[in-house]
Amino acid sequence: MAREIVLDTETTGFDPLRGDRLVELAALEIESFVPTGRSFHVYIDPCRDMPAEAEKVHGLSSHFLRGKPRFEHPEVVEAFLEFIGDAPLIAHNAAFDRGFLNWELANCRRDHLHEHRWIDTLALAKQRFPGMHNSLDALCKRFKVSLSEREKHGALIDAKLLAAVYLELKGGRERRLELSSATMINAVSVASKTEYGARPRPLGPRSTEEERATHAAFIRGVVKNEELWGKFGL
Q1: How far apart are CA 187 and CA 195, in angstroms?
Q2: CB within 8 A of 43, min separation 6: which ones?
């Protein structure tokens, strides 16, 4: 089964070269487009102030993040790299997440996550819906993926939403039908191997003698035509 990692980040801004840093990182494991339930999630101390504009987006304050592990701590960088392994990485506007992660990895003297590993769902959406608004929110609404759990942007909830959107972009309902068809084929295969006794012909009556007598009296007294029913022994 194909293992892939859906990930999302939250940051203090837009550009690590201007001092912006990661503050939240989340990754979900999927196999054959189905979440396995395994995930990685961590808040990160950026060691700098949180701009008010960024806090409005994700709700993470400097006070909340102070004292959280730094990216270079083993519980972040080591655990993250171990979790993703060599699996393809799926992100929405992947260049943004890749830029921040590679900047942080470079500071830890770790290898970059090369571009060929990344699958950009924004690029997939633009191919499928050219000229349309293709933000994660817009795609969730288009594919009827519920946004009820999300009050603000957060890496973990956004990764969960993105996993659902990725399934739709890769085939969605048609892929579910493929899985359902495979299940049905398996069920038929199992059923075909099950031995049953010969079916009696004609089938025995399900009614009682009393019920048949009552029905015959009704035919004689009300319908007054036993020609048809007589063929069935009434």
Answers
A1: 14
A2: 23, 24, 60, 64, 65, 68
DSSP 8-state code for residue 114:
-
Task: Say if pTM beats, i.e. exceeds, 0.85.
Answer: no
CA distance 120 to 141: 19
* Beta strands 3-11; 118-120: pairing state: unpaired
pLDDT at 37: 95
- pLDDT of 232 above 60: no
Which candidate in 114, 116, 133, 153 is catalytic?
Answer: 153
Taking each continuous run of H as one helix and of E as one strand, the counts in the chain are 10, 5
* CATH dotted code for 3-173: 3.30.420.10
Confidence (pLDDT) at 152: 78
Residue 4's CB is within 10 A of a number of other CB atoms, namely: 18
From edge to edge, which strands make up the β-sheet containing 3-11?
34-43, 22-31, 3-11, 89-91, 118-120
160 CA to centre of own chain: 7
Query: From CA 79, how far away is CA 191, in angstroms rounded?
Result: 46
- Residue 153 known to be catalytic: yes
> What are the angstrom distances between the C-alpha of 62 and each of 19, 51, 57, 228?
15, 9, 14, 88
